[in-house]
Amino acid sequence: MKGNAVYKRSYNGCLAICGSLPLGAEMPSENELSQSLAVSRTTIRTVMTGLEAAGILRRESGARRLSRRPAPDDAFPDTQTLSTSATVERRFLEWILDGHIGPGHLLTATELARQFGTSTTIIREHLPHFQHFGLIERRPNSAWLFKGVTPAFANEIYEVREMFELRAARSFIDLPDDSGSWRRMRTIEAEHRSLLASIDTDYGLFPDLDERLHRTVHETADNRFIKDFYDIISMLFHYNAQWDAEDEKQRTFTALTEHLAYIEALLRRDLKAIDRACRQHLKTARSNLLRSIELRMKVPSAPDASPA
User: Fold this and answer.
1) Any long-range contacts for 174-179 (C-beta under 8 Å, 24+ apart)?
2) Cα distance between residue 71 and residue 15, in whole Å
3) 136 by DSSP, 3-state: which?
4) Which class in CATH covers the domain with range 5-79?
5) Is 81:8 a contact under the CB 8 Å cutoff?
6) Do domains 5-79 and 151-298 have the same CATH topology?
7) Which intervals hold domain GntR C-terminal (predicted)?
8) CATH number of 151-298, picked from 1.10.10.10, 1.20.120.530, 3.40.50.1100, 3.30.465.10
9) Hey, where are the domains in the chain?
10) Beta bridge partners of 146
């Protein structure tokens, strides 16, 4: 089995699709899966072989059918599906959200390379990404000032998120009827309904589904700034979901129902309904992030130690 992040990310994506199908159902074609997951058909073929070896799929009259429903331990851990840059960025975000440093702390590439067990070259290459979002500020002598993840930061970043998301949604509904993005959105809708039906046990699968929905919308804007912005939003959401576990199932139920209202509006190309559903969902997401930040602010700062 391949060990690269693209394969593992694609494998997890196919597992999510398998989870939305009834037993015995035929998997989408290699071409449809390739378009849905934005990877090559060669990667999809390798993933299909892996799923067959795991007993999840079986060959039947030239088709691949679902033999068993995927279990949580069938998936690769998130940390194994990330590129080097995404791994460094996610670990940095988790580190600062854990309270290892506070606003006003000066960071250097040498300090961070030691913290994360990587090279100063990697740090210098990827740290400026966070400057674009106001988390850090460049200072003389190769230092960076950490400005903090505060309620004000959350409010500001969600104002921009709302603007970008609505702009991307308008691009989405302008796509031609035969665009692969429509097929991906219908698959994502089916996955939402499946997860809603099994929410008592599977609510932990929601973060991946959330990311794929919003990324499917954002990528149609064909705007690098919107795409880069969503990377930081995705990391913030994932960490928020891990840190604030209280009422997670109820929050997942709310998010799923809000997503379905948004998806249905997108599929109808109903601009007014899209605007209403999108704003409501982002308002809820902002409230959840603010609650998480406020809870962390009440917890004493963690010792300044290397992350695991």
Assistant:
1) 175/220
2) 9
3) strand
4) mainly alpha
5) yes
6) no
7) 156-284
8) 1.20.120.530
9) 5-79, 83-146, 151-298
10) 136
The tokens describing 91, both together, are 């670990």
- Residues 215 and 255: their CA atoms lie apart, in Å, by 16
CB 131 within 8 A of CB 138: yes
Rg (alpha carbons) of the chain, rounded to whole number: 20
Residue with tokens 């494998």: 11
- d(CA 39, CA 42) in angstroms, rounded, equals 8
Alpha-carbon distance of 20 to 23, in angstroms, equals 10
Per-residue pLDDT 10s for the chain (308 aa) are 444 778 888 898 899 889 888 899 999 999 889 888 878 888 999 999 999 999 999 999 889 999 998 988 888 876 666 666 667 777 777 777 666 777 888 888 888 888 877 788 878 877 777 777 778 888 887 788 888 777 888 888 888 889 999 999 999 999 999 888 898 899 899 989 989 998 988 887 888 788 889 988 988 887 777 777 776 776 666 656 555 556 788 889 999 999 999 999 999 999 999 999 999 999 998 888 888 777 766 655 544 444 43
DSSP tag of 138: E
Residue 291 token pair: 């609650």
Task: At 27, list the tokens.
Answer: 């998997």
Dist. CA 194–CA 216, nearest whole Å:
19
Q: Would you list the DSSP string of 42-82?
A: HHHHHHHHHHHHTTSEEEETTEEEE-SPPPGGGSPPGGGSS
Residue type, 33: L
Which amino acid would we find at residue 20?
S
What's the token pair of residue 178? 């035969």
